[in-house]
């Protein structure tokens, strides 16, 4: 099962200052984006569990 990972930023948090503050970049990357990655991994895991438990009625995994 593929595991999604949070990519590293290509630059440091202050790269867009003063237009975007380093705190906003850090918040977005380390909290928001990380939550999306975790949600994707949780969903993939749940789908795998359902496929295993209901293999008789669901279509096979691609």
Automatic annotation (TrEMBL):
The keyword Oxidoreductase applies. Gene3D superfamilies: Fe,Mn superoxide dismutase (SOD) domain. It holds the Pfam family Sod_Fe_N. Residues 4-55 form the Manganese/iron superoxide dismutase N-terminal domain. It comes from the Bacteria. InterPro entries: Fe/Mn_Superoxide_Dismutase, Mn/Fe_SOD, Mn/Fe_SOD_N, Mn/Fe_SOD_N_sf. Its EC number is 1.15.1.1. Keywords: Metal-binding, Oxidoreductase. Belongs to the iron/manganese superoxide dismutase family. PANTHER family: SUPEROXIDE DISMUTASE 2, SUPEROXIDE DISMUTASE [MN], MITOCHONDRIAL. This is superoxide dismutase.
């Amino acid at each position: 099962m593929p595991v999604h990972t949070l990519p590293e930023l290509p630059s440091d948090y202050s790269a867009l200052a003063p237009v975007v503050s380093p705190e906003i970049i850090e918040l977005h990357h380390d909290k928001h984006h990380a939550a999306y990655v975790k949600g994707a991994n949780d969903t993939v895991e749940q789908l795998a569990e359902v496929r295993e438990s209901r293999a008789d009625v669901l279509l096979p995994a691609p």
